[in-house]
Specification:
By secondary structure, this protein is mainly α. It is 60% helix and 6% strand. The longest helix has 25 residues.
């Protein structure tokens, strides 16, 4: 698993599904606004949503 510059891991669809879901749940749980960079909350939220949509698409295609 790679890490982005902001410190959050990048999810690869090759990771086992339970691990991927655990990681996404952890990131959602830790998602909070930052007083100095309030836009980061929305950026991080958008990244998580994109990863969930990508994961759902992969599950639909490959079961």
């Amino acid at each position: 698993m790679m890490t982005k510059p902001n410190g959050y891991p990048v999810i690869g669809v090759i990771a086992p599904l339970p691990n991927t879901l655990d990681n996404l749940a952890y990131r959602v749980e830790r998602l909070t606004p930052h007083p100095k960079r309030p836009e980061r909350f929305h950026e991080d939220k958008s990244e998580i949503v994109a990863e969930l949509l990508h994961l759902a698409d992969e599950v639909r295609r490959h079961g």
